[in-house]
Amino acid sequence: MEISQVISSPIFIAFFIGLFSSLHCVSMCGSIIGTLSYSLKPEIRNNKSKMLTFIFSYNFGRIFSYMLAGLIIGFIESIVTLPLGADHGHRVLQIISALIITGAGFYIAGWFPSFAYIEKTGSFFWKTIEPYGRKLIPVATLPQAFLFGMVWGWIPCGLVYTALALAATSGDILTSMLSMLTFGLGTLPAVAGSGMVSSFITRLSNLQTTKKIIGMLLVVVAIFSI
After folding, report:
1. What would the pLDDT profile of 185-213 be if each residue is shown by its tens digit?
2. Of 223, 195, 174, whose CA–CA distance to 16 is shortest?
3. CA distance 205 to 118
4. What is the DSSP string of 158-180?
5. Where are the chain's structural domains?
6. pTM here?
7. How many helices (H) and strands (E) would you count in the chain?
Protein backbone atom coordinates (compact mmCIF):
# COMPACT_ATOMS: atom_id res chain seq x y z
CA MET A 1 0.00 0.00 0.00
CA GLU A 2 1.35 3.44 -0.99
CA ILE A 3 1.90 6.10 1.67
CA SER A 4 -0.82 8.29 0.09
CA GLN A 5 -3.32 5.44 0.50
CA VAL A 6 -2.37 5.02 4.15
CA ILE A 7 -2.69 8.76 4.88
CA SER A 8 -6.09 8.96 3.16
CA SER A 9 -7.49 5.81 4.78
CA PRO A 10 -10.41 6.29 7.23
CA ILE A 11 -8.54 4.38 9.95
CA PHE A 12 -5.54 6.72 9.80
CA ILE A 13 -7.62 9.91 9.48
CA ALA A 14 -9.96 8.89 12.32
CA PHE A 15 -6.99 8.64 14.69
CA PHE A 16 -5.94 12.19 13.91
CA ILE A 17 -9.49 13.50 14.25
CA GLY A 18 -9.50 11.99 17.75
CA LEU A 19 -6.05 13.36 18.52
CA PHE A 20 -6.81 16.87 17.26
CA SER A 21 -10.28 17.10 18.79
CA SER A 22 -9.48 15.64 22.21
CA LEU A 23 -8.10 18.91 23.61
CA HIS A 24 -11.34 20.61 22.65
CA CYS A 25 -13.44 17.95 24.41
CA VAL A 26 -11.24 17.52 27.47
CA SER A 27 -13.14 20.08 29.53
CA MET A 28 -16.31 17.98 29.32
CA CYS A 29 -14.73 14.52 29.41
CA GLY A 30 -12.15 15.61 31.97
CA SER A 31 -14.90 16.76 34.32
CA ILE A 32 -16.59 13.35 33.99
CA ILE A 33 -13.31 11.61 34.80
CA GLY A 34 -12.88 13.95 37.78
CA THR A 35 -16.38 13.30 39.11
CA LEU A 36 -16.03 9.55 38.78
CA SER A 37 -12.56 9.60 40.31
CA TYR A 38 -13.79 11.42 43.40
CA SER A 39 -16.67 8.96 43.71
CA LEU A 40 -14.20 6.09 44.15
CA LYS A 41 -13.26 4.79 47.57
CA PRO A 42 -10.34 6.63 49.25
CA GLU A 43 -8.16 3.50 49.15
CA ILE A 44 -8.50 3.47 45.36
CA ARG A 45 -8.06 7.23 44.90
CA ASN A 46 -4.92 7.22 47.03
CA ASN A 47 -3.34 4.36 45.08
CA LYS A 48 -2.12 5.70 41.73
CA SER A 49 -1.86 2.31 40.04
CA LYS A 50 -5.40 1.33 41.07
CA MET A 51 -6.69 4.76 40.09
CA LEU A 52 -5.10 4.40 36.68
CA THR A 53 -6.80 1.04 36.06
CA PHE A 54 -10.19 2.59 36.80
CA ILE A 55 -9.52 5.57 34.52
CA PHE A 56 -8.53 3.25 31.68
CA SER A 57 -11.56 1.02 32.33
CA TYR A 58 -13.82 4.07 31.93
CA ASN A 59 -12.07 4.96 28.69
CA PHE A 60 -12.03 1.46 27.23
CA GLY A 61 -15.77 1.26 27.86
CA ARG A 62 -16.18 4.57 26.04
CA ILE A 63 -14.08 3.38 23.10
CA PHE A 64 -16.01 0.09 22.96
CA SER A 65 -19.21 2.13 22.46
CA TYR A 66 -17.52 4.03 19.65
CA MET A 67 -16.72 0.71 17.96
CA LEU A 68 -20.31 -0.42 18.39
CA ALA A 69 -21.47 2.83 16.79
CA GLY A 70 -18.98 2.17 13.97
CA LEU A 71 -20.52 -1.27 13.42
CA ILE A 72 -23.99 0.27 13.21
CA ILE A 73 -22.93 3.05 10.83
CA GLY A 74 -21.03 0.55 8.67
CA PHE A 75 -24.17 -1.57 8.37
CA ILE A 76 -26.25 1.52 7.49
CA GLU A 77 -23.64 2.51 4.90
CA SER A 78 -23.89 -0.86 3.18
CA ILE A 79 -27.64 -0.37 2.79
CA VAL A 80 -27.61 3.32 1.82
CA THR A 81 -25.03 2.88 -0.96
CA LEU A 82 -26.91 0.02 -2.65
CA PRO A 83 -29.21 2.22 -4.80
CA LEU A 84 -26.30 4.41 -5.95
CA GLY A 85 -23.84 1.62 -6.58
CA ALA A 86 -20.83 0.88 -4.40
CA ASP A 87 -18.35 3.25 -6.11
CA HIS A 88 -20.66 6.20 -6.69
CA GLY A 89 -22.32 5.86 -3.28
CA HIS A 90 -18.94 5.68 -1.55
CA ARG A 91 -17.77 8.84 -3.34
CA VAL A 92 -20.90 10.77 -2.31
CA LEU A 93 -20.35 9.73 1.31
CA GLN A 94 -16.70 10.81 1.10
CA ILE A 95 -17.69 14.32 0.00
CA ILE A 96 -20.35 14.61 2.73
CA SER A 97 -17.86 13.35 5.31
CA ALA A 98 -15.21 15.89 4.18
CA LEU A 99 -17.75 18.72 4.54
CA ILE A 100 -18.65 17.58 8.08
CA ILE A 101 -14.97 17.31 9.10
CA THR A 102 -14.38 20.81 7.69
CA GLY A 103 -17.35 22.08 9.71
CA ALA A 104 -15.87 20.48 12.83
CA GLY A 105 -12.54 22.18 12.13
CA PHE A 106 -14.18 25.61 11.78
CA TYR A 107 -16.20 24.89 14.94
CA ILE A 108 -13.11 24.13 17.03
CA ALA A 109 -11.38 27.21 15.63
CA GLY A 110 -14.36 29.31 16.77
CA TRP A 111 -15.56 30.26 13.28
CA PHE A 112 -18.65 28.05 13.03
CA PRO A 113 -20.49 27.84 16.41
CA SER A 114 -23.67 26.59 14.73
CA PHE A 115 -21.95 23.23 14.21
CA ALA A 116 -22.78 22.49 17.85
CA TYR A 117 -26.40 21.92 16.81
CA ILE A 118 -25.34 18.58 15.31
CA GLU A 119 -25.08 17.28 18.87
CA LYS A 120 -28.85 17.53 19.25
CA THR A 121 -29.23 14.55 16.90
CA GLY A 122 -28.23 12.18 19.69
CA SER A 123 -30.05 13.88 22.56
CA PHE A 124 -33.10 11.60 22.56
CA PHE A 125 -31.02 8.41 22.73
CA TRP A 126 -28.79 9.94 25.44
CA LYS A 127 -31.80 10.79 27.61
CA THR A 128 -32.88 7.15 27.31
CA ILE A 129 -29.62 5.55 28.44
CA GLU A 130 -28.17 8.22 30.75
CA PRO A 131 -30.20 7.02 33.80
CA TYR A 132 -28.49 3.60 33.52
CA GLY A 133 -25.14 5.33 33.89
CA ARG A 134 -26.26 7.13 37.03
CA LYS A 135 -27.24 3.81 38.58
CA LEU A 136 -23.59 2.69 38.33
CA ILE A 137 -22.40 5.54 40.60
CA PRO A 138 -20.56 5.22 42.90
CA VAL A 139 -18.33 2.96 40.84
CA ALA A 140 -16.81 0.24 43.00
CA THR A 141 -15.40 -2.32 40.55
CA LEU A 142 -13.57 -2.34 37.21
CA PRO A 143 -16.53 -3.98 35.37
CA GLN A 144 -18.74 -1.17 36.69
CA ALA A 145 -16.20 1.36 35.41
CA PHE A 146 -16.22 -0.30 31.99
CA LEU A 147 -20.04 -0.31 31.85
CA PHE A 148 -20.19 3.33 32.89
CA GLY A 149 -17.69 4.12 30.13
CA MET A 150 -19.95 2.34 27.64
CA VAL A 151 -22.84 4.62 28.64
CA TRP A 152 -20.56 7.67 28.62
CA GLY A 153 -19.52 6.82 25.05
CA TRP A 154 -23.01 7.70 23.80
CA ILE A 155 -23.03 11.23 25.24
CA PRO A 156 -23.97 13.64 22.39
CA CYS A 157 -20.77 14.97 20.83
CA GLY A 158 -20.45 16.63 17.45
CA LEU A 159 -16.86 15.46 17.06
CA VAL A 160 -17.81 11.82 17.66
CA TYR A 161 -20.46 12.26 14.97
CA THR A 162 -17.75 13.70 12.73
CA ALA A 163 -15.71 10.53 13.20
CA LEU A 164 -18.82 8.46 12.43
CA ALA A 165 -19.33 10.42 9.22
CA LEU A 166 -15.79 9.46 8.24
CA ALA A 167 -16.37 5.83 9.28
CA ALA A 168 -19.36 5.78 6.92
CA THR A 169 -16.93 6.19 4.00
CA SER A 170 -14.83 3.17 4.96
CA GLY A 171 -16.47 0.75 2.52
CA ASP A 172 -17.06 -2.13 4.94
CA ILE A 173 -18.27 -2.79 8.47
CA LEU A 174 -14.91 -3.98 9.86
CA THR A 175 -13.05 -0.89 8.65
CA SER A 176 -15.84 1.28 10.03
CA MET A 177 -15.37 -0.32 13.47
CA LEU A 178 -11.59 0.02 13.27
CA SER A 179 -11.94 3.69 12.31
CA MET A 180 -13.94 4.36 15.47
CA LEU A 181 -11.40 2.35 17.48
CA THR A 182 -8.53 4.52 16.24
CA PHE A 183 -10.62 7.66 16.82
CA GLY A 184 -11.11 6.60 20.44
CA LEU A 185 -7.42 5.82 20.83
CA GLY A 186 -6.63 9.28 19.48
CA THR A 187 -8.70 10.86 22.26
CA LEU A 188 -7.21 8.60 24.95
CA PRO A 189 -4.01 10.53 25.85
CA ALA A 190 -5.77 13.83 26.58
CA VAL A 191 -8.92 12.41 28.20
CA ALA A 192 -7.17 9.80 30.35
CA GLY A 193 -4.36 12.23 31.10
CA SER A 194 -6.79 14.90 32.26
CA GLY A 195 -6.97 13.17 35.62
CA MET A 196 -3.21 13.47 36.04
CA VAL A 197 -2.32 16.79 34.41
CA SER A 198 -5.77 18.38 34.28
CA SER A 199 -4.71 21.98 34.94
CA PHE A 200 -2.12 22.00 32.14
CA ILE A 201 -4.44 20.32 29.61
CA THR A 202 -7.34 22.61 30.52
CA ARG A 203 -5.18 25.73 30.09
CA LEU A 204 -3.86 24.42 26.77
CA SER A 205 -7.36 23.60 25.48
CA ASN A 206 -8.59 27.09 26.37
CA LEU A 207 -5.94 28.91 24.30
CA GLN A 208 -7.48 30.45 21.17
CA THR A 209 -4.28 29.82 19.20
CA THR A 210 -4.44 26.12 20.10
CA LYS A 211 -8.06 25.91 18.98
CA LYS A 212 -7.32 27.61 15.65
CA ILE A 213 -4.33 25.36 14.94
CA ILE A 214 -6.34 22.23 15.73
CA GLY A 215 -9.28 23.50 13.67
CA MET A 216 -7.10 24.09 10.61
CA LEU A 217 -5.43 20.71 11.04
CA LEU A 218 -8.89 19.13 10.84
CA VAL A 219 -9.55 21.02 7.61
CA VAL A 220 -6.30 19.54 6.22
CA VAL A 221 -7.52 16.10 7.37
CA ALA A 222 -10.78 16.71 5.46
CA ILE A 223 -8.82 17.43 2.29
CA PHE A 224 -6.83 14.20 2.68
CA SER A 225 -10.04 12.25 3.26
CA ILE A 226 -11.13 12.89 -0.34
Report:
1. 988 877 766 555 445 555 555 567 777 87
2. 223
3. 21
4. HHHHHHHHHHTTSSSHHHHHHHH
5. 11-225
6. 0.84
7. 11, 0
